[in-house]
Amino acid sequence: MRNRFVATVAIAAVAALGLAACGSSNETPEAGAPNTSLATTAGGAGGEVGVFTWWAAGSEKAGLDALEKLFKEKYPNDTFVNLAVAGGAGSNAKAKLASDLQNNQPPDSFQGHAGAELADYIDNDQIVPVNDVITALGGESVFPKNLLDRLTVDGNIYSVPSNIHRANVVWANTAVLEKAGVTAVPKDIKAWMADMDKVKASGVATPLSVAGSWTQLQLFETVLISDLGPEKYSGLFDGSTKWDSAEVKAAAADYKKLLTYANTASDGDDWPVATDMVIEGKAAYNVMGDWAVAEFAAKGKKEQTDYQYFAVPGQDGVFDFLADSFTLPKGAKNPGGTKDWLMLIGSAEGQKAFNLAKGSIPARTDVPPTDFPPYQQSAMEAFKSNTIVSSIAHGAAVSLAWNADMTTAISKFYTTKDDATLVTDLAAAAAKYVG
Length: 435
Ligand code: GAL
Prior knowledge:
- This protein has 435 residues and is an alpha/beta fold.
- It is built from 17 helices and 14 strands.
- It has helices at 11-21, 58-74, 93-102, 116-123, 131-137, 145-149, 174-180, 189-201, 213-235, 246-259, 271-279, 292-298, 335-346, 348-358, 374-385, 400-416, 419-433; strands at residues 47-52, 78-82, 109-113, 152-153, 156-157, 160-161, 165-166, 169-173, 208-209, 285-288, 307-311, 318-322, 324-326, 387-390.
- The strands form four sheets. Strands 2-1-3-13-6 form a five-stranded mixed β-sheet, sandwiched between helices. The protein has a four-stranded mixed β-sheet with strand order 9-10-8-11. The chain has a three-stranded mixed β-sheet with strand order 7-12-14, with helices on both faces.
- It starts with 10 loop residues before the first helix and ends with a helix.
- The structure holds beta-D-galactopyranose (GAL).
């Protein structure tokens, strides 16, 4: 597979294109062509702006609500239309979005992930470049280059990032660990399972909580990172690490054993079900992206006293990355309104409001860390200094189709617990996508 997300252009060159290259407000678009002019109208372009996400409930909705509130203040001419479809990680939303795009009924903007996931929409000619918005927002002077690289294909930037999330975090219940006599962060997956034995012995039957398939895929990806190390893990996506290697087989075996410590999940269980088990002391640990911190906050829980967090054992200094980013779909009915939305989510003010509520960190580098609580301050520091790897479950490392094949394999494994077949299935899936 061609790695489309290795930077294909110096961002400076994109910046040089600037607003001028993308048309000015006075230009009339060709007949039949969408008006993607990006000049700002005070108060907004007017009309409805339909925004498609999967932030439909709980702390995720709180993040979207914060953006909606600010959008209404900044762009009073525009009418925000919330098109959210419930289901973490887009587990339901992505199918609805695919059919809307297929039927030429795009929303004015939709949530996607920086990295491989964008390639699907670009290959299908479903989204258009937003170089001019990125430039107007400050380009490389305000967005990290390694993030812009993941949004750039063949010299064009295709979405505006709202945030950066970290996927490889263990959230733990302080009282449960104290009761079990667990006092230190384990050094690797095996040491972690030894701690889970202590938790079990203290009377908590399911030390680890999981929810439906995508949360299992996310858990599995973190086991891969620990057992392979960041370099070999990254090699899984360009063919330099084999999916049927001894390391992947060992990771599958570790994953199988980890699940023996977990609750029985239904396929449709969404992530708050698992995170709430930790909040309620029914489990000691949950591996979840840092949207979980917003759930702890929403339930009035205090860091350290009630809960703790650490990188999944064996990956200190590794940041499992994903970023939500918003698009301008081809054929969007109100591209001027889309531009208002993109300018809002990419602004320092928008990023502060959203990320404070969402648990993520700003994609921009000019939002002061001191405006954020300790967890997010630590994540900002980690993003700057850690080795960055791309999340499988959240669109950064693999395309939508590859993700779907892996989810099928993980879901099948959840029933069969046959780790040899899991490896065979994952290798067969990879063979379809790594050329
Ligand atoms: C991710 C998304 C996050 C969060 C999470 C759980 O895919 O990037 O912002 O929404 O799913 O739903």
